[in-house]
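WP5 quarterly update. Target: F-box protein AT5G49610-like beta-propeller domain-containing protein. Source organism: Aegilops tauschii subsp. strangulata. Length: 426 aa.
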Amino acid sequence: PAPHFHWRTLETQARIPILFHTGDDGGEMTTGRGHCVSPAVAAGPLEDDNVVGEILVRLSPEPSSLARALVCKPWGRVAASADFRRLWRDRHGRPPVLGVFDKRMTTLLFTPGLQAPDRIPRERFSLQVCSEAAWNTWCVLGVRQGRVLIMNWTLREFLIYNPFSGERRRVSFPPDLSLPPDEFFDDAYNANGALLWDDEQSPLKLVLVACSGRTRVEARVYSSETGTWGDIISIPEPCRLTSVPVTVVGNRLYCWLRRPVNSILEFNLDSQTLALITRPPRANLKSRNCRIIPGEDGAVGLALLMYPAIELWNRNINSHGVATWVLRKTVILDSIFDLAPSSTGTWRSLVLGYAEDANAILISVYKEMCIRAFTVQLESMQCKRIHGHFLNDVYHPFASFYAAGPSTLQILARGNNDGGAGGGQA
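C-alpha cells (predicted):
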C-alpha cells in the first residue's frame, strides 16, 4: 500500500478476519459491529468482486452464515451471482438438508430440519397446492436441485416450485397422454418422473415414466428449449411403479418397481432406452427399508437399512458387460444414534426418503410410542436429528445451498419470529 495507508484487521458479522486500509483524512465510518473504518475502504481491495467472493466463499455452509456476512448491497450482488454460487458449491460439496417436504391434504408442507439461527420457518416454504375439494388429485414426485416437482392429474400439468423465490412453473401433460383421474392409483396405471437441469442458464428437462394398462411402460422427455415432449420410449414388459421418487445417476434414471418382483427400471437418457435390471441378491428388500443411490465409479447403488446396520451395495459391470451387485460397506448405527437398549422393546426402522443432492437418507427409528427421525449422510455417516411427526411412508428431504438474494435474506432475517403467510397458493 501507499505510505499514507495502514492496514487494520477487522472482524465481520460472519466472524472472519478481513484487512481494511484507512487513510489520513480523519474521516471514519462504522461497520455493523461498531468498528470504525475510513471511507477509503471503499477504494480498497474489498471493492474487487473477486476478493469479496474469495472471502465469502470461506464461510461455513450453514444457511445463516452467508446472510449475516452480507453487510452491504455490493457484497449481496457478488453473492447472488452465478459465478459465486458455482464457487460456493465447488468449495462446500454436498449441501445441508434444510428440511422435509410432504403432502398434507391440500398443502405442500415443509418441516424445518435445522435449529436457529439456520432454521427456516415452516410457513416460508409451505405451499397451498389446491382447494379442499381437489385434495386427492395431486402428488409430490420428488425434490432435486432446489426444486419441488408436483404432478396434478386433474389440471393435467406438472408444477415446478422454487421454495427460495416462490416461483412456480407449469408444464402441461403430453397431449396424447391418457390419464383418467379415477384410474391414477388403480393397479392398471401409475406414473413417476424427475426434473433435470444443470444450472439456471441451461434448458430444463422433465422426464415422465408411466405404466399404461398391463402391457407396457413408457417414458417421455420434455425440454424447455423446444417447449415440447419428445417421442415415446417403451418396452413391452408390464410394470407397476411405486411412489418412491426417481433417482438420477449420471445420465440414467432409476425407478423402484413393485412388479416385476426384484426389478428396477432404468432409463438411459443418452441412448433413449428403457431396461429392467435385477436388485441385489438380498432378502427383505422393500421400498420401506432401502433407496436407490449413486454408487461408486458412476454406477448405480442401493442403501439398505436393517437397523442397527446400514448396507451400501454397488452394481459393478465387468469388461464383458456382466453386472454383479457387490456389498461394499456395512455400518452399525447404534453408536451414531446413541439409542439406548431397553427392556420394553427393540428399535425398528424405516427409510422415509432420500435427498439426492446431499446423498443422505431420511430414516425413522421407533418402538412403541417413541419415534425419532434422522438424516444420515451416506459418505460421512454423519447423522442429524429432525424433529417432527413422520408417520407416513414417503417424504421428500430438501437439500440445498442458499442462493443469496433479497428473498433469501428476508427469510433468514425474519427467522422464527415470522408468522406470516407461507409460500402462497399454486
